[in-house]
Structure formats: C-alpha cells, structure tokens
Amino acid sequence: MSTSTATVTASANVPLRTPPKANRRAHRERLIKEAKRVEFRARQLGIVPKHTKNIIMPTEYMGVTCAIYGVKRFFGAKIVFEGEEFRLGTFENIIDAAKARDFKAIQLYGSEARLNLPRETYEVSGL
C-alpha cells in the first residue's frame, strides 16, 4: 500500500492580501519581536544607526506606539473615531499611554469600548 503526500505550491500570480483580522494580532506580535531582535543585535554589536533619532515601532497595546529618540523612549497614544484621529500625547511609561488611550475610548465608545487593560482597572461610574 503506497501513501502519497501532496505538496501545495503557491503561484507567482497570486496577489498578496492583508492578513485577516484573526491573524493581525499574530502579525503585529511578529513585527514587535523582529524590531526588538534588530534593536538588541544592534546594541550587541555596538552599532548606532543614523536613523536612531526617530524610530517608531508598534507595541503590544492598541493605539500605543514607542518612539525612540537617541537613547530616550517615549510612548505615544492615539485613537481614531469616525475617521478623526485623536493624538493623546506622549508618555514616559507604556502603561500610562495605554490608560490614556483607554480613557478616551471609554469617552468615545462608552461601554462598547475595546480596552487594553481590564475594565476593573478604571473607576468609571455608569459602566
């Protein structure tokens, strides 16, 4: 009795698509991991790239980015509501940026808001 294994090859004509919603989180985590790996390797080799003045990379929190200016890190928070982008400022701590984004999300979306931290973290009346 013979068993055959079929291999599937991708055609060069297949257009690339954005990952479905279920894979976006995994894709984002891969990007974060790769950015951290590159940054670690650069430090290990003593390499300081010319563009260190403005490196912006995603974080594990929604609406929060990490900006590296030289050796200083800042965490920016923003949220988009009905096509309008609200920039909430920069913070020295990633948790503060995530909380600022969550507070604005609660103001805009109410109880339907998707939050970074557990809802019990915030003392908001009426939710």
Q: Keywords, please?
A:
globular, disordered N terminus, GCC-box Binding Domain, alpha+beta, 4 strands, 127 residues
Brief summary:
The protein has 127 residues and is α+β, with helices and mostly antiparallel strands. It has helices spanning 21-45, 94-109, and strands spanning 55-58, 64-69, 72-81, 84-91.
What sort of overall outline do the alpha carbons produce when their principal axes are compared? globular
String of helices and strands: HEEEEH
Looking at this structure, what is the CATH superfamily of one domain? AP2/ERF domain
- Look at the structure and give the CATH class of one domain: Alpha Beta
- C-alpha termini separation: 64 Å
Which topology of one domain does CATH recognise? GCC-box Binding Domain
Structure characterization notes:
With 127 residues, this protein is α+β, with helices and mostly antiparallel strands. It is 32% helix and 22% strand. The protein has a domain at 49-118: GCC-box Binding Domain (2-Layer Sandwich). It has a 4-stranded antiparallel sheet. Strand 1 (55-58) and strand 2 (64-69) form a beta hairpin. The chain is globular, with a radius of gyration of 20 Å. It starts with 20 loop residues before the first helix and ends in an 18-residue tail after the last helix. The model is unreliable at 1-12 (pLDDT under 50).
